[in-house]
Structure formats: structure tokens, C-alpha cells
UniProtKB/TrEMBL annotation:
Pfam families assigned to the protein according to its UniProt record, in alphabetical order: Formyl_trans_C (PF02911), Formyl_trans_N (PF00551)
E.C. numbers: 2.1.2.9
Transmembrane segments: none
Record-given protein name: Methionyl-tRNA formyltransferase
Residues the record lists as binding (6S)-5,6,7,8-tetrahydrofolate: 109-112
Stored NCBIfam families: fmt
Length: 312
């Protein structure tokens, strides 16, 4: 059984690893091109490319998915099945239709809810208590194809993007391995999605992490967890410097005690910031140009912040 795997993020690695351990023949991994990163703008390879190279798997990085040369290369590999996990691009039908057993996408949401590029962030932002991994047949629309199987998992109130991604990736890998034999034997009939219930996510931008202190502490806490580590939840100090909130904890306070965004000391001498409802204890921060540090140490070096307002 020859597989081609399409993926560009860390989400795909546990899935790819389980496929390899299950003795499926992975003839190629298709991923995004190397891109400039950081201040130096040096080219950075997708993490899944590095993993695949270490595993001795052929890597293909097309600049254009509709390029005839790319199509010919995929055809020449004679794949029986294509597996897709967080690839990040719409794959043309002429590619999807090549394998005998179709092209299966592993998507971390309870489709048709949260279609698109940022389902995990949106699950956390929405305060949902459970999510799902969906295996679906892929067509040329975004997360639109018929569903093969879904399996739910919990969402912890301390989950970050990283922890929930890891849980969903592990679940997706397990679900794929136990479902593929039934799929290949023709024992599963895919079910069309109810497209009237579809909700959509967008590509996350850096500005999405900007904190609005008029929101409740619960909402801002979810923002910090959903956008960790990138783009991060951030605010601005009175001097205009950016301050990332890496770890926070909700603190119940009486309404109207402080203006939203006001820095104050808790009874235990810890840094906290008032929100539209309740407050956040600041457990770990990173000032622009500096290293991460705990909130108490940061405030010890910035005592002038007490009773001042942070800027949105």
C-alpha cells in the first residue's frame, strides 16, 4: 500500500510516524517550500520536511500545485492513497483523483464546524469543552468532503494551542490507523456533511493577539492560550513597548474596583491586571527585546507600572 502524505506543520508528524510504524509505504511527503524567517530572513524548512528527511522519506516542495511537472511526479509514484493533515493549501482535483482509494484529510474539529486553517485556536477561543478529529474525503473545497469517521476528545481549561494540537494529532493518528483497514476493504460509507451548519476559520495574523482589556478575564485568558506561542497575547506598556503575556490566571475581583487595563498588586504581592470583568494574575511575561520572566520579577523591575493602565 503506497501512500503520499501532504502536510506542513507539526500536527502531521505523529500521524506520519504512526503510518510508518504501521508498515504503510510512504513514497513521498509533500510540504510547503522553505521560507525566510526571523530577523535574519534565513530560509527555514517546514518541521515536517526535517522529520521526513531524518526518516529517509522523499520530500517534494512544489511551488505550484497545478504545475504539470508536479502532477507527473505524483503520478509516477503510483500512490494507492493520499493522506492530508494541515497542509494549508487547496489541492487540485487532478491530484486528489489519482489514488485508487482516494484522498483522506485529518482535520482537528467536529466538522462541519470550524472549517479552515485555525480550528484549534477557535475551539479554545470559544471556550468549548470538547472537540473532535474528523477523517474525511477531500474535494476541491475547504474541509467540505464527506465524513468517514469522527472521534471526540476533551478540551481542558488550561489547554494551549500546543497542548490541544498534540492531543488532536495523537488522536488523529490512532483514528487513522484503526480506520484505514476498514476503508481499504470498502466497509465504510462516507456521509455528506450538513453544509448549512458549516462555520469557518481564518488565517491567524499577528494582530489577532492584541489584548482588549475591556473584555472579561475569561476571554483574555482564552486568547492567551489559543495564541500560544504565536502570535502570542500582547499588550503595550505606557512607554509603547510590547509585552507578551505567556501565562496568566483568572482572579475574581469586585466589578468596578479598577479601570480595565490597570496594573495592581494582589494581596500576595503578585502582578495583576484588571479586565472588563474580573482580573488576570500575570504569571509569566516577555517584554519586547527581553527574555521570558515570571510576573513578580518583572513587576519588581517596573514598580512604576502599579496603578497605571496597559494599552490595547
Amino acid at each position: 500500500m503506497k501512500l503520499i502524505f501532504f502536510g506542513s506543520s507539526e500536527f502531521g508528524i505523529p500521524i506520519l510516524d504512526e503510518l510508518r510504524c504501521a508498515s504503510y509505504e510512504i513514497v513521498a511527503v509533500v510540504t510547503s517550500i522553505d521560507k525566510p524567517a526571523g530577523r535574519s530572513k534565513q530560509l527555514k524548512s517546514p518541521i515536517i520536511k526535517l522529520w521526513s528527511q531524518d526518516a529517509g522519506i522523499k520530500v517534494i516542495q512544489p511551488t505550484d500545485l497545478k504545475d504539470p511537472g508536479f502532477l507527473n511526479e505524483i503520478v509516477s509514484l503510483h500512490p494507492d492513497l493520499i493522506i492530508i493533515a494541515a497542509f494549508g493549501k487547496i489541492i487540485p482535483g487532478m491530484i486528489l483523483d489519482i489514488p485508487k482509494f482516494g484522498s483522506i484529510n485529518v482535520h482537528p474539529s467536529l466538522l462541519p464546524k470550524w472549517r479552515g486553517p485555525s480550528p484549534i485556536q477557535n475551539v479554545i477561543l470559544s471556550g468549548e469543552k470538547e472537540t473532535s478529529v474528523t477523517l474525511m474525503l477531500t474535494d476541491e473545497k475547504m474541509d467540505h468532503g464527506p465524513i468517514i469517521i469522527q472521534e471526540k476528545t476533551y478540551v481542558d481549561d488550561k489547554d494551549t494551542y500546543i497542548s490541544l494540537t498534540q492531543r488532536c494529532a495523537s488522536l488523529g493518528a490512532e483514528l487513522l490507523i484503526k480506520t484505514l483497514p476498514k476503508w481499504l476493504e470498502g466497509r465504510i460509507k462516507p456521509q455528506e456533511q450538513d453544509h448549512s451548519l458549516a462555520t469557518f476559520t481564518k488565517i491567524i495574523s499577528r494582530d489577532d493577539g492584541k489584548i482588549d482589556w475591556s473584555k472579561s478575564a475569561d476571554e483574555i485568558d482564552r486568547t492567551a492560550r489559543a495564541y500560544y506561542p504565536w502570535p502570542g497575547a500582547f499588550t503595550f506598556l505606557p512607554d509603547g513597548k510590547r509585552l507578551k503575556l505567556l501565562e496568566v490566571r483568572i482572579l475574581n475581583i469586585e466589578d468596578g474596583r479598577y479601570e480595565s487595563g490597570t496594573v495592581f498588586l494582589t494581596d500576595t504581592g503578585e502582578m495583576a491586571v484588571a479586565c472588563g470583568k474580573n482580573a488576570l494574575m500575570i504569571e509569566k511575561v516577555q517584554k519586547e527585546g527581553g527574555e521570558p520572566m515570571d510576573g513578580k520579577s518583572f513587576l519588581n523591575g517596573h514598580r512604576n507600572l502599579i496603578k497605571q493602565e496597559l494599552r490595547s
